[in-house]
Amino acid sequence: MNQNLFATFARRMRERGDADFITTRQGRGYRYDEALAIITRLAGALIELGVTPGDRVAVQVEKSPEAILLYLATLRVGGVYLPLNTGYTGEEIHYFLADAEPALFVCRPGDAENARSIAADTGCPQVATLGTAADGSLMEAAERATPRDDIIERDDNDLAAILYTSGTTGRSKGAMLTHRNLGSNAATLAEVWRFSEEDRLIHALPIFHTHGLFVACNVTLMAGASMLFLPKFDADVIFEEMPRGTVLMGVPTFYTRLVADERLTPEITANMRLFVSGSAPLTAETHRAFEQKTGHAILERYGMTETNMNLSNPYDGERRAGTVGMPLPGVEYRITDRETHESVPKGEIGMLEIRGPNVFVGYWRMPEKTREELLEDGFFVTGDLAMVDERGYIHIVGRDKDLVISGGYNVYPKEVEQVIDELEGVHESAVIGLPHTDLGEGVTAVVVPEPGTNLDEAQVLDHLQGQLAKYKQPKRVFFADSLPRNTMGKVQKNQLREQYQDTYR
Ligand code: MLC
Ligand code: AMP
């Protein structure tokens, strides 16, 4: 049997016929049958542009229904979808194209010239454009193309997507996800979160990460539900749309912003059946305040780019504030000693490790990194510290990796430090995450200047412009004569976090 995830989606899409798939507030969207028709054309265009099975299709475009059709067409032709954050700079894109060697790079119409030069530099043979109004050279090619309604055969373990996640060493790693990884997780989530054809998901997340792309869109497709596509999170629009929606998926920042708004009431949320939170810790305080104001207990779940979703609070039963629930069906976990990988006694804190059909097959062209994190017995070392309580609910209590999560986006300090350290007059720097009322954590730099230089905050920030995506750039830069170090010479970031703890709250 063809294990191409798109074969499963296509069956569901055909069954749903003229039901809505994606809608927008501008009235531009696709019914399921319309989406299928465009996907056959896009598939034809991809093949004509030279995409063959196993080829990567790198995509940096604004959110639009067509971007999802492109994702589905890529699966259909056996390609490997590689979405890129719209905030990445040319320098960042250069790295991704050089590393992933895609057969095609689809960019925003306004970026075409720059994209062509990066493509030429990195050996990427084709560039096409896709705008937000069904415009761009890709859609033109689809109109001309011979439609392809065959679905290229894929094996369970063939790649469906590569998503880059920042790495502790500063080099981003491409997480290789198979058709089985994505398909098993989508089927499980649709079932445990009780998705049905009646659902209308309010989709306000970006579509270049696991949360907005796989959790939101794959689950919608599995269930034959519909999605309202919003360009970004905007509380005014969410309040307007909630009476016609049934589910919202968001990062904790969505919920802290909604809770702070007096429009959040039981009446406005009356049509909604589910609020899901993930990608970063939701505070117990926000969970309780949301329930108090609406009667809805937010369902918090835990996942990663490398694994899709692993743990989830129950649909029925208590959704415990401050916990991420239990393993999803088919997913195993253990909490271990980080050196020996032996399980620690119940109730103690240890490294969270995950095994299951959802766990990726490795990092693109990084066998050593893969071996470090994906153990021989199939468990993946998440880098998150966890403990399980007496009722079996898992708590994420911290991170054993030097990672900042700002508004649901991951920032690896090393990457930012490396760019800061290149600035003339900088001796060294330490990048930390500090508690931030809106974003959860705020990226912050502590810089040690070379003696006798006169650096200021604006100079450091200016230097980062154009080199790092905006969300990675520090919200504040502080200066110090030296960084606190332990006897091994390691920078004591805890001390810095303590010293500057009140910066954003
Ligand atoms: C925007 N900015 C951010 C930022 N988002 N800075 C730091 N961190 C962020 N997350 C910048 C903007 O460029 C702008 O800069 C300024 O901050 C204010 O922007 P804003 O208008 O307040 O931001 P907004 O557009 O409202 O975005 C905030 C947000 C958004 C939280 C809604 O970042 C978001 O949708 N995040 C979701 C991320 C996500 O999908 N994560 C899932 C990863 S998958 P200036 O200077 O231009 O004003 C994963 C696995 C799993 O983790 O388990 O799900
Ligand atoms: P990413 O690499 O962007 O997929 O981010 C994955 C990381 O997000 C995990 O390793 C966790 O640190 C964090 N994360 C995701 N969901 C949660 C959650 N519900 N609570 C706490 N942290 C989370």
What do you see in this structure?
By secondary structure, the chain is α/β, with parallel strands linked by helices. The protein has 3 domains: 29-178, Rossmann fold, CATH 3.40.50; 233-399, ANL, N-terminal domain (Rossmann fold); 403-499, ANL, C-terminal domain (GMP Synthetase, Chain A, domain 3), CATH 3.30.300. It has helices spanning 5-16, 32-48, 65-76, 90-100, 112-122, 137-144, 179-192, 210-223, 235-241, 252-259, 284-294, 367-373, 413-421, 457-464, 493-499, and strands at residues 20-24, 30-31, 56-60, 80-83, 104-107, 126-129, 159-165, 173-178, 200-203, 226-229, 247-250, 274-277, 299-304, 308-312, 326-327, 332-336, 350-355, 362-363, 380-388, 394-399, 404-406, 409-411, 426-436, 440-449, 476-479. The strands form 6 sheets. It has a 9-stranded mixed β-sheet. Strand 19 and strand 20 form a beta hairpin. The mean pLDDT is 97. Bound molecules: malonyl-coenzyme A and adenosine monophosphate. Malonyl-coenzyme A (MLC) binds at residues 205-206, 209-212, 232-233, 251, 253, 278-279, 303-305, 406-409, 439, 470-471.
